[in-house]
Amino acid sequence: MIVLLFAQLMLGAPVPRPAPAAPDLRLWYRQPAEQWNQALPVGNGRLGAMVFGRTARETIQLNEETLWSGGPYDPVVPGSYRALPEIRKLLFSGDIPGAHDLFGRTMMGHPYEQMKYQPLGNLQLTFPGHENATDYRRELDLDGAVARVEYTVDGTRFVREIFSSAPDQVIVIRISANRPGAVSFTAALEGDRNQAHSNYGTDYFQMDGVAPNTLRLTGKSSDYLGIEGRVRYQADVVARVEGGSIEVGRRTLTVSHADAVTLVIAAETNFINYRDVSGNPAARVSQRLERVRTRSYTELKTAHQAEHRDWFRRVALRLGAGIPDADSLPTDLRIKRFATAADPGLLALYYQFGRYLLIGSSRPGTEPANLQGIWNDNSNPWWDSKYTVNINLPMNYWPAETGNLAELEAPLEKLVEEVAEAGSETAREHWGARGWVLHQNTDLWRSTTPMDGPSWGAWPVGGAWLMTNLYEHYRFSGKEADLVRIYPLLRGQARFLLDILVVDPKRGWLVTAPSNSPENFPGWPGNGPFFDEVSGSELEARTMTAGPTMDMQIIRELLAEFIEAATTLGRDSTLVAEARAARPRLAPNQIGKHGQLQEWLDDWDEIEPDHRHLSPLWGLYPGHEISPESSAAFAAAAAVTLERRGTGGCGWSYAWKAGLRARLYDGTAALEQLRALLTRSSLPNLFSLCGKALQVDANLGATSAIAEMLLQSQEAEIRLLPALPAEWGSGSVVGLRARGGFTVDMTWADGRLTEAELRATQRRRVVVQAKGASRVSAGGKRVAFERVSADRIAFLAEAGVRYRLGFSE
Ligand code: FUC
After folding, report:
1. 614 in contact with ligand 1, CB cutoff 6 A
2. DSSP secondary structure of 476-539
3. 565-602 pLDDT, tens per residue?
4. Is 516 close to ligand 1, i.e. is its CB under 6 Å away?
5. pTM for the structure as a whole
6. From the CA of 739, how far away is ligand 1's center (Å)?
C-alpha cells in the first residue's frame, strides 16, 4: 500500500487518502457505560454528546460550548498596581508571607474566581423490554466520527448511531431495527440544574413537548459569584418517524412500532462574544432545523463524514507489528493488557483519538477546547472546566501543528485576541504596565485578572506562553500572513513583559516579581502549611517567588520571537532595541546541587520532589532553548530533573514527560511514560484523567508526544525518527507536518527508515537528519544534496515539489 502510495505521488497523482476505517480506528466494548466516565464522545467543536449505549434506558448527555455560568463581567480592580512596589520590596527582602498576603489583599481580581462551564442536559430514551439484550456491542469509529450501539432483543437486531455534524450544526441519532415496526421508545429531554447552588435559584429550565414531533428545553444559566447568569439557551429534539406512530406529551415523546426513527437535535444560546449575549437562541434553533428539514439521514451522515474525514485522514499512523489479535479485544481490556503486553497499535489508536478529540472540540469559529474539551456533565466541574493556562490550554494545542490540524488552532488565536483586548486594562490597573496580561486561568468571559488566590493567580506570563503557541503556527506554516496577523498581539506581550521586568537586587538579573513556578512549593526554610486569606483554606505551602526559571525561558523565547517578527516585518525598531537590551539581562538557566535544572533563582529543593508540573523544563519542550545539541549541559540537567520527578503526577504530567523524553531522544523512556499514562491515568474510553477528573490535555499532550517521537523540526532541521522505541520497530506514517511548511511521510522497518517523502510548500534550504539517507529524488530525477554531517543532508526544496529520500543499509 505504501509502495503504491509513493508510486502515485511520484507520478504527481492526487494524494491518495489512507485506507479508510480499518478496524484499528475503533474503540469498542461489550457492555454499556455504567457511568459518564465510560461513555463515548462525539463533537463538532461546539455541540458535544457523551453516549452511554444502554439498551433499555439510554442516556445521551449533551453540551453546548457557550453555556457557562454568569455573563459578561469585568473583574479588574482599578489602581491595584499601586501595591506592587511594596509587594516587591517584601518579596526581595525575604518576607514572602508578607508579599503573598499583600498580593491577596490588593492585586486579585474581583470576584477572585471565575465562571464555570455548564452541562446542557440529557436526552433519555426508554426502550420497553430491552432489559435483556444479547450480542451487545458499542463502538466509536474515529474515522467515521459515529458512535454506534447494537444488540439483539428477541431475535431482532437494534442499531443506534449518533454523530455531531459540523456542516449542519446538529446532533443526529438514528434508531433502527432489522424487523419492520420494531422501534418503540419514549424520549425525554431533561435539563440540568446546579444542585449545589440550587439555593441561589438563579438557573432554571423548562421542558416542553411541542406537537407534532418535538421536545424542547429552554433555560438560563446560573448567577455565580455575584455575576448575573445571562446565557439563555434552547435545545430542540425533532423526531422523524418512519412507519408507526408518534405521540407528544407534556414533556415526553413516544414512538410506537416505527421501522426507524431519526432524532435531530439543535441547541443554541444567546452568546455572540465575550461582551455580547444578545443572540436569539429560539431563532437560531429554528434556522438550523429549517436548513436540515428536507435532508435525509443518509445525506446528513454523508456530509458529516466527508467533512470530518477531510481533517481526520490527513494523518495515517501504523506502529509496530503489534499483537495479531489486538483489534479483536475490546478497548477496555486492551488498555488493561497494555500494562504488560507490547501493543503499539493501541498507541496508534490513542494518537488518532487525540486528533479526533481536537477535531471534535475546536473548529474555526468555535471556542477553544477547554479542560474537558466540550464534554462535561457536571455543573460544578473540576477546576470549572475552564481554560487553565499554566499547562493545560497550551498543551491542548500542541498536537495541532504536527498532527496536520493547524486550522483548528483558530479558536486559540481568537481567544488570545480577546484576552489581549480585555487584558490591556488588567495590565494597566494591576501591573501599571502597557501591553496586555493574562494570568493563570480564563473563562468564556475572558477574565484576565489574578484568580483563585496568590498561590495560582500571581503568575503574569500566561499570555506570553499562549503567544509562543501562536508563533509555532507561523513557524510551521512559514507564511508571512500568519505573522502579520499575530504581530500586534506579540508586540503587546513584549511591551507588557518589558514594562514589568525588574532588577533582582541580589544578583542584578531582570526578573518577574511577583510570580510562581506553577504550582510548585520552594523549600525555603520555614515554607510550609499556612491558612490562606483569599482562598479561605489551609494550603500546603507558599509558591510566590521572583524570576522562576520557566518565566525566564518563556520571556527569552517570546522576546526572540518578537525581535525576529519585528525585524522580518520592518517594524518597531525602538521596542526591538529595548527587547535586545533586556534579553541578555534575564536570569539565566542554572544547574542546581543535584545536577538538576534549577526551578527557582535560589537552589531550593522542592517540598514535593515529584511535583506534577515540569515548569523548569519548559525551555526543552514545548520551548526550544535547550537541546542535547545546542546546550548539552542543560539537557543533561533536564534529564536529572525528569528522574527526580518520577513517572507519576496527573494525566497531563505523564504526557509532558513523554514529550520531554522525546526531545532528549529517549524513545524508550518516552514509551514508558505513555504506557504509564494509559494504564495509570486513563479511563476505559481512552480519555485521560487528572485526579478524578476527565481532562483532554493529556490525550492531546500524548498525541503531540507520539509525533515528537517520530518527527522533530525545532532548531531549523527536520529529524526523522528521533526517538523511536524498539517496540515500534516497524511502521509508517503519512501526513505529519514539520516547521517551514513541510509534510512528511515515512516508512521504517527494524528501526531503520526505508522510505521518506517531504513535500514543500515554500522554497527553502532544508536540513534533514536521518540515519542512512543516501539519495534524494523528485519526479524520478536525482536532486543534488550536501552531506552536512554523517547523518544529516541538506538540499534546496522548491515549493510544491515532493522529495523522496532513499536510504542505504
Ligand atoms: C493546574 C494543575 C492541576 C489541574 C488544573 C486544571 O492547576 O496543576 O493539576 O490540571 O490545572
Report:
1. no
2. HH--HHHHHHHHHHHHHHHHHHHHH-EE-TTT--EE-SSEESTT--B--TT---EEETTTTEEE
3. 999 999 999 999 999 999 999 999 999 999 999 999 99
4. no
5. 0.96
6. 29
